[in-house]
Amino acid sequence: MARSRAEMMQETRAKLIAAARKAFAEKGYADASMDELTAAAGLTRGALYHNFGDKRGLLAAVVNQIDEEMAAKATAIASHIEGEWQALLVQGSAYIEMALDPEVQRIVLRDGPAVLGDPQQWPSQSGCLHTTQETVERLIAEGFLKPVDPEAAARLLNGAALNAALWIAASDDPGEALPKALDAFQLLASGLLK
């Protein structure tokens, strides 16, 4: 049975993202050759341009994929935690801890912001912010958190986790920075408790 055009396009995109993810993780965005990564995918530069516009567009797709995986992993870790507040803190802490992953460090936390700009503007981060805001709204309504603007609280919680991860990724000793970041994140977040 012949594959549809949409299926072929999806397969092409997946091949390019996989090849780029490997190249960006190993060499970094700046040193990753478009010719090498398209050859590794068995495709042409034309396929890259058609699907992503340019190398920057391909990086955006890779960052989005990894960031969505990070959010799903943090959600899965927190799914076993009782209580929405504790689950929210565990999610934030899990996100921070992922900054120890070399692929996350290089692609999402170093090259991503350098090439794509403010991570808080990325589509994957917007989804995470929306989920956090909904949780904060419920916790305020239940009287668990102080009455505070839910969007502001969600932005500050997500921003604290993101900036902690960025700090760890840029640190000379990420393993040493991690416990400091986690302690500070927990302490900052506890200020919202009623």
Describe the structure.
The chain is an all-alpha fold and 194 residues long. The chain folds into two domains: 1-53, Arc Repressor Mutant, subunit A (Orthogonal Bundle); 63-190, Tetracycline Repressor, domain 2 (Orthogonal Bundle). Helix content is 76%, strand content 0%. It has nine helices and no strands. Helix 7 crosses helix 8. The radius of gyration is 19 Å and the shape is elongated. The model has no long low-confidence stretch (mean pLDDT 93).
What is the terminal separation in angstroms? 61 Å
CATH superfamily of the largest domain: Tetracycline Repressor, domain 2
User: Helix/strand/pairing class, anyone?
Assistant: mainly alpha
Strand percentage, roughly?
A: under 5%
> Tell me about the biggest sheet?
none
Note the overall shape: elongated
| H/I helix tally | 9
Q: Overall mean pLDDT score? A: 93
Number of strands: 0
Count of separate structural domains: 2
The CATH class assignment of the largest domain is: Mainly Alpha
Q: How would you spell out the order of helices and strands?
A: HHHHHHHHH
Low-pLDDT segments, ≥5 res: none
CATH topology of the largest domain: Tetracycline Repressor, domain 2
CATH architectural group of the largest domain: Orthogonal Bundle
